[in-house]
């Protein structure tokens, strides 16, 4: 340990070095304590919401991670109906990844609330099978938030199925405007902020970036 007189004789660089060391040592103690405290293992519910780009791609990033660890994954894509995405082409052909596109298109395309509800219910049945089967380590419910915010599905039933799922199963829910009850139930919530998006400058959706 350097005493006060030694410190006064140090060059500005050496002083800086010293203070950095002290700060980092303090930080390490705090981080090590936090790591030691976080010793629970359980299946997580993650909600990735907000207006910015990066919600679904974040979920698919976790699919890649989980596949790398040999986990079994189920993906349910609600609302959207396109089956030409890069993520489906890539992950859908992986042996450990089951991929379902369960949407009919956006509400402003279908313009039919009762058919949207019927489609949502059919999709939710597929999701429920995964959420009651412990062999799925990770379940992605892409764009599920809309089915709750538009009241297409019974909110309590969905929240109940999510909370009663197998103990070690991870679930990621994506989509804008996640309802408060879902955020509350979640272990991790990320709100992706829209600062800028190329689309607003008239640039169309780009292959490999947007789909
Ligand atoms: P991504 O799938 O790229 O991670 P996302 O899941 O965050 O996007 P969605 O609301 O599902 O966002 O929209 C998907 C499509 O809309 C993508 O093509 C994405 O680039 C585009 N998009 C996302 N956010 C915005 C935005 N703020 N303005 C315009 N387009 C957006
Ligand atoms: Mg999305």
Automatic annotation (TrEMBL):
<keyword id="KW-0627">Porphyrin biosynthesis</keyword>
<dbReference type="GO" id="GO:0008817">
    <property type="term" value="F:corrinoid adenosyltransferase activity"/>
</dbReference>
<keyword id="KW-0963">Cytoplasm</keyword>
<dbReference type="InterPro" id="IPR003724">
    <property type="entry name" value="CblAdoTrfase_CobA"/>
</dbReference>
<dbReference type="GO" id="GO:0005737">
    <property type="term" value="C:cytoplasm"/>
</dbReference>
<dbReference type="Pfam" id="PF02572">
    <property type="entry name" value="CobA_CobO_BtuR"/>
</dbReference>
<keyword id="KW-0169">Cobalamin biosynthesis</keyword>
<comment type="pathway">
    <text>Cofactor biosynthesis; adenosylcobalamin biosynthesis; adenosylcobalamin from cob(II)yrinate a,c-diamide: step 2/7.</text>
</comment>
<dbReference type="InterPro" id="IPR027417">
    <property type="entry name" value="P-loop_NTPase"/>
</dbReference>
<dbReference type="GO" id="GO:0006779">
    <property type="term" value="P:porphyrin-containing compound biosynthetic process"/>
</dbReference>
<keyword id="KW-0067">ATP-binding</keyword>
<comment type="similarity">
    <text>Belongs to the Cob(I)alamin adenosyltransferase family.</text>
</comment>
<keyword id="KW-0547">Nucleotide-binding</keyword>
<keyword id="KW-0808">Transferase</keyword>
<dbReference type="GO" id="GO:0005524">
    <property type="term" value="F:ATP binding"/>
</dbReference>
<protein>
    <recommendedName>
        <fullName>Corrinoid adenosyltransferase</fullName>
        <ecNumber>2.5.1.17</ecNumber>
    </recommendedName>
</protein>
<comment type="function">
    <text>Required for both de novo synthesis of the corrin ring for the assimilation of exogenous corrinoids. Participates in the adenosylation of a variety of incomplete and complete corrinoids.</text>
</comment>
<dbReference type="GO" id="GO:0009236">
    <property type="term" value="P:cobalamin biosynthetic process"/>
</dbReference>
